[in-house]
Amino acid sequence: MQQQTIIEPFRIKSVEPLGVTTAEERMQKLESAGWNVFGLHADDVLIDLLTDSGTGAMSAAQWAALMIGDESYAGSRSFFRLEQTVRALTHCRHVIPTHQGRAAEHILFSLTAQRGRPGQRLVVPSNSFFDTTRANCEWAGIEALDLVPAEARDHGSRIAFKGDIDLAALECCLRERGDDVPFVLMTLTNNRIGGQPVSMANLRAVRALCDRYGKPLWLDAARFAENAWLVREREAGQGDRSPREIASEAFALCDGFVMSAKKDGLVHIGGLLACNDDAIAEQARTQLILTEGFPTYGGLAGRDLEALAVGLGEVLEPDYLRYRIASVRYLHDKLDRLGVPLVQPHGGHAVFVDAAALYPHLDPAALPGVALCNALYVEGGVRAVEIGTLMFGRAGTDGAADEVAGEELVRLALPRRTYTQSHVDYVAEVFAAVFARRGEATGFRIVEQRPVLRAFTARLAPLDERWRSLSQRSR
Ligand code: F0G
Questions:
Q1: How many CB atoms lie within 10 A of CB 75?
Q2: Is residue 268 part of a domain?
Q3: Any ligand 1 atom below 6 A from CB of 287
Q4: Residue 100: closest CA among 227, 231, 273, 252
Q5: What are 97's strand-pairing partners?
Q6: How many angstroms separate the alpha carbon of residue 102 from the centre of ligand 1?
Q7: Are 139 and 263 in a shared domain?
Q8: Which domain holds residue 397?
Q9: Model confidence, pTM
């Protein structure tokens, strides 16, 4: 038999009820939350696609591993198990656990700044920085330089590897500012522009450039396994390799990596910093003790280290990855068929909608991404996240106009092993209802905001008081 349907390669042993509400209740809850989905109680959300970070389901083997976690302060058996797993996969000798990705980033960038000369203006070139990575880099006084190829910025273009770095721009940076470049950072996959993969050809070319200019290469490996699968599916000559072989090669090309284990570690909390440089590892461990914990547990409990060791194995199983990427593609294709403008092609962990193209009558200051998130929530209890002017714009100072972001995207991130195909069918139905009324959508304005990371706490208001009735007309 030719198998047509890619099924979930697991069965369900433990279930959690979903919060069912009516549209009228959701309208009230959203209003109390200041029209910002970050302010909602999660119990009032039916399908939560806010993030794929720490929201996946652990396997029975991971839950069982928790029980054998060794909580010794120093020399925990669980640490050595994790160390062995990470070394076997990545070839990095020094394995340093942190409580999540941003703690590893903080350590890496602050010790990089300490290693620079006084007054030196350091710059780290990258295919793209995720927002906490950028924030930690800039906080350490280092410039974070995104080198996204021009063609990858066109959301509609179907280039297979939009996560690749612009090699010519990287070479130019290394030639002209080489002295100030402590290392090059590649993010697998690129979360800023669609969860798009980096090709092995690009990664090898980056390695060659780093060798030519004598620079280390670091990875932000949060979604290393999804990257490996997309390479296998899309890159010529990679289709016969296992995801473990591809991922291992990617790690072998780098000198070190930081990782949020909340994604492809398949755990609820955790992070890693790993490298082969003895001096960097020594300094990182010194800093780790100050803010995270003793080097054999970092910021984690022994049981978390066990669950991560198991997760790093499960995430590379071909059946899991085939299903994982198929479930993202399934939602992507359904919305594509409706005619929803999407970041093309699909990425590894989420579907990205171009809200500016969906609502061409709303300018960026009217927050089209927020309008879409709010419509999805009221229509069907689906929570998505805006990646646009609310997240990346800035309030104007001294009477200047507010700054808008370059793009108005909405991300529907799929937590790992959490929702079934019928949940995804339902999300597409909700989307179809919202899409049918796209011409009538009205925007939002910010009424309260903080100077830093405003998206999380801002309070908003509908620009048109008829928002309530407009968004409920179809009911
Ligand atoms: N790097 C990437 C590429 C990420 O996507 C994230 C987190 C981090 C680093 C930071 O890791 O959360 O463990 O401290 N991304 C989440 C998201 C929050 O929703 O995309 P963390």
A1: 12
A2: yes
A3: no
A4: 273
A5: 272
A6: 7
A7: yes
A8: 23-52+317-474
A9: 0.95
